[in-house]
Amino acid sequence: MENAVKRIGVLTSGGDAPGMNAAVRAVTRSAIYRGIDCVGIRRGYMGLINGDVVKLDASSVNNIINRGGTILYTARCQEFLTEEGQVKAVNTCKLLGLDGIVAIGGDGTFRGALDLSKYGVSVVGIPGTIDNDIACSHYSIGFDTACNTAIEAIDKLRDTMQSHERCSVVEVMGRNAGHLALYVGIACGATAVLVPEKPIDFERDVIEKIRIARLNGRTHYMIVVAEGAGSAPEIGKKIQEEIAIEPRVTVLGHVQRGGTPTARDRVTATRMGYHAVNVLAEGRTNRVICVRDGRFEDVDMVEALQMKKSLNEQEYAVLEAMTGA
Ligand code: ATP
């Protein structure tokens, strides 16, 4: 089986995440190390449809391990959802002689990879999303950097909130998942954190938490809201209506998707990229690379997509204690 694989492609798809470049670099260097050619596919599945590709050699991935974003660009491609689009993508693979594809992205990206595999293309997925919502893996590339970006911003807000004795409502990303908000909330010493995985009782989860903080002598409050749990402006308005304090609202938005990747994201991305190439080189397909309790493994892609990721209950219990006393 060794060296049956001659050439592979790598793409980044869906929302970008810091560390994707480190993964592209690792895929490229690991492939070359094993005598396999590597081709970069630009703009995710759109690039595969349009033949928008670039040959990657060891030097073309110089100086990117430290860069946020993705040098391959990313896109959301509607055409790839159609059979016609998928056939075009498969034809590009045939034309270029691609034996396998490494797809870096989220759940949607893996669904796309699975469709590709139905035409005989070998595929491996690497979890790259700041939402950390890929169920099979304890960790997704970009999460740590996004947490640190949000924490840095919230620390700055805290300084001014403390000086003016104000309440701040900060909305962080995460789509339908609260992992980012929970982690950031613990790290920032938030007064309250709202996540979509838990039912929200406004009186209990926001007003009472502010009250506890006030009774403990605090005169500034930090409410962290996951985007999937509600809109920060609406939550701010409700706080004002109920207890007559006027919060300042900040939606952190896309700033959380950028920036220099942290050590954790660089090393995780590099290890995942290396593992992905090994899987393809061994002639295996339809796998998602994951890290569980510090070990890098791969799981079946269909099973990976069926798994559901719940909130880390130990972390949530810690948050409850920190915000409830
Ligand atoms: P993020 O979590 O950061 O948004 P994602 O990979 O889940 O990342 P999506 O926009 O859902 O982002 O998916 C990326 C691309 O994958 C889509 O634009 C589309 O081209 C392809 N894709 C998504 N779902 C499917 C599907 N069911 N079948 C085929 N292709 C899909």
Mean pLDDT: 96
Oligomer: single chain
Which kinds of small molecule does this entry bind, naming each only once? adenosine-5'-triphosphate
Beta-strand content bin: 15-25%
Contiguous helical run count: 11
Shape: elongated
Give the proportion of residues in helices. Answer: 40-55%
CATH T-level topology of the largest domain: Rossmann fold
Summarize this, please?
This protein has 325 residues and is α/β, with parallel strands linked by helices. Helices cover 43% and strands 18% of the residues. Helix 1 runs parallel beside helix 9.
Written description of the protein model:
The protein has helices spanning 20-33, 44-50, 83-96, 107-117, 143-164, 179-188, 202-215, 232-243, 263-281, 301-306, 313-323; strands at residues 7-12, 37-41, 53-56, 100-105, 122-127, 167-172, 192-194, 221-226, 248-251, 287-292, 295-300. The protein is elongated. The chain has 2 domains: 7-142 and 261-306, Rossmann fold; 145-256, Phosphofructokinase domain (Rossmann fold, 3-Layer(aba) Sandwich), CATH 3.40.50.460. By secondary structure, it is an alpha/beta fold. Adenosine-5'-triphosphate (ATP) is lined by residues 13-15, 44-45, 76-77, 80-81, 105-109, 111-112, 115, 129, 131.
